[in-house]
Each structure stands twice: as structure tokens, then as C-alpha cells.
């Protein structure tokens, strides 16, 4: 009778460490991502702790560097506001200290310019004629992207 269960492959701590070094060197990672990846490789908690310790010691893994890189990338590429960036970093269990440090990567002038650009671009796409509905659509869009409510309502009232 054939065995229908997939064979579990066992990875040594040394192999797993090498894989994680490559994983972290390719792109900034947070601790949570690395732990999940190691759990997926069926590593035991002691091995996970040992590998994480090695990655931190060898500077492959650095939460502050990850948080800064993440904040810059999401702001510059996806045009996310501070609230969304904070929420996403919290989901990745990044410390408050590192989140505050990451937000300093965003220049206030660039932040307001980006909000202006994003709001104007979205407003040009809204085909609604009712002024209240136009305002709501624009505000909802900006709030969803994580822009602070006081900035959003100020911008909406300025543009419409």
C-alpha cells in the first residue's frame, strides 16, 4: 500500500541559518517574518532562538533598520500616510521606539506635498457631481491610505 503522506524534509540548523542569511540579505525582514519562515521549515523553538540570535549578531536582522526601510518604501512607493504605516508595523510586532524612529524618515514637507498630489489626482478621478458625496469619496480614500483625519478634512475642504 503506497504511503500518501508527504515526506517531511529535515533541515539542519546550519542549513537553516544559511537559508535565513540569504533570506535576510535579499530584503530587510522583521523578526516575525523570519520566525514564521523557520517554523515553516519545522525548526524547534531552541533552534529558532539560536538562528535569530546569530542573524542579529551578524547584522542580517535589525528591527530598526527594517522599520525605517519599510516606512520609507510604503510612503515613497505606495503613498501611505503615517497611520497606515504605524498600523502595519504594529502588526509586525515592531516596538514603539522603532516605529517612532521609522516615522522620522519621512520629511514633513514631502509628506504634505504627497498628500496634496494624491488628493488632487484622486479628485480628478471622482466622477460624482454631488459635492457632499465627492467630499466623502475623497476623504474615505485618503483615510484608507492612512492619512491623519485632521489633514484629510483640511485638504478635502480646501479642494472641494
Automatic annotation (TrEMBL):
Instruction: Indicate where this protein is primarily found.
Output: cytoplasm
| Gene3D superfamilies per UniProt | Winged helix-like DNA-binding domain superfamily/Winged helix DNA-binding domain
Tell me which residues make up the RecX second three-helical domain.
Answer: 62-103
The family database entries (Pfam families) matched by this protein are listed as: RecX_HTH2, RecX_HTH3
Matching InterPro entries: RecX_HTH_2nd, RecX_HTH_3rd, Regulatory_RecX, WH-like_DNA-bd_sf
What are its GO cellular component terms? Answer: cytoplasm
**Which BP terms from GO are recorded?**
regulation of DNA repair
**Record's keyword annotation contains Repeat:** no
Key words of the record: Cytoplasm
Locate the RecX third three-helical domain: which residues? 110-154
Where in or outside the cell? Cytoplasm
The family classification in the record reads: Belongs to the RecX family.
Q: Quote the protein name from its UniProt record.
A: Regulatory protein RecX
Q: What is the originating organism of this protein?
A: Flagellimonas pelagia
